[in-house]
Design a protein that fits this description.
Distance between the termini: 19 Å
Order of helices and strands: HEEEHEEHEEEEHE
Radius of gyration: 15 Å
Strand order of the largest sheet: 3-4-5-9-8-7-6
Number of strands: 10
Structural class: alpha+beta
Helix content: 10-25%
Shape: globular
CATH architecture: 3-Layer(aba) Sandwich
Number of domains: 1
Largest sheet: 7 strands, antiparallel
Oligomer: single chain
């Protein structure tokens, strides 16, 4: 997945992690390695390996693996099975899960539309992505609970080996660009089993 580089494109947002995380033609964008690292990573810090059912990836330097924490998993409520919960130093969250039921390839965009939280703004059109050779779609949006700070999200779904995987990023608006860099690192190192 190529993360849009303009702040406007990033602000049109999409991945539902802690903010009601559930969910879920054209040319396929490819995942290209980012030349930058997260600003929160200390010099010489390295990512650590992460393995889950169906895939392997890396936890960006400075991020924490919260997958074994029952409260972190519970706070990323939604349908399906949570496979990964990674938190950024600024509390942004990337969650990977399988959906309760597989979603047909030609229904992935409609699925993302159906799970976008009510009240979300700046919802992007579904755009193609490629995660380790597997194509899917993603959307971005801005949302937040009334009275709470607005959050930006990126939500993507891909089908692999009979499962639909949803990968989401949810971050504060000020931290979204930096956390998107972490998400890009996670996707750059993603390999399917």
């Amino acid at each position: 997945m190529t993360v849009p580089s303009s702040p406007h494109a990033l602000a049109t947002g999409a991945c539902v992690a802690l903010l009601l995380l559930t969910a879920c033609g054209g040319a396929t964008a490819t995942v290209t390695p980012s030349s930058s690292t997260t600003a929160s990573a200390s010099p010489g810090a390295e990512s650590t390996p992460f393995a889950a059912a169906g895939f392997h990836t890396s936890v960006p330097a400075g991020w924490q693996d919260q997958t074994a924490d029952p409260s972190a998993v519970a706070s990323s409520s939604g349908g399906g099975t949570v496979l990964m919960v990674l938190t950024a130093p600024d509390h942004g969250v990337v969650v990977a899960r399988t959906t309760p039921q597989p979603v047909a390839d030609d229904q992935l965009a409609q699925y993302l539309t159906s799970i976008t939280p009510a009240g979300a703004t700046d919802v992007s059109q579904a755009q193609p992505i490629d995660v380790d050779g597997v194509s899917g779609v993603f959307v971005t949006f801005v949302g937040g609970s009334p009275g709470a700070a607005a959050a930006e999200s990126e939500d993507m779904v891909v089908n692999q080996a009979g499962n639909t995987y949803e990968i989401t990023l949810n971050a504060s608006q000020p931290g979204f660009t930096e956390d998107s860099t972490g998400l890009q690192e996670i996707l750059n190192t993603w390999t399917w089993d």
